[in-house]
Amino acid sequence: MAWSWSHTSEAYDNASANLLALDHATLVEIVTEWDAYRPDAEDADSEGFSIEAHTAAHAADAYRDMCSDSIADLIWDRMSEQATCDNGGFNAWACPYGCHTVSFDRAE
Q1: Is the pTM of this model over 0.90?
Q2: d(CA 90, CA 72)
């Protein structure tokens, strides 16, 4: 079960900063998961994940030369639209499935 975001602006700033702190490979994996998120597509599973779209996104390697900050901005936009977090509201979902998260608390 997931919750919707309902946090302070400081919490959102912290989550954004924590997202920016992720390494490039992790950011690429997250953004390609967003690319593969197709909840209404025929090739998607019950959670809206299209393995074909995910594989194609990785094969195209479109994000390889993009700077991490730009990728994080793309992810943040998608995260903000979905605005989902774990139970208790401690971690924002960075991907549409909740397998990648960032804390609303400031990272140490």
Answers
A1: no
A2: 20
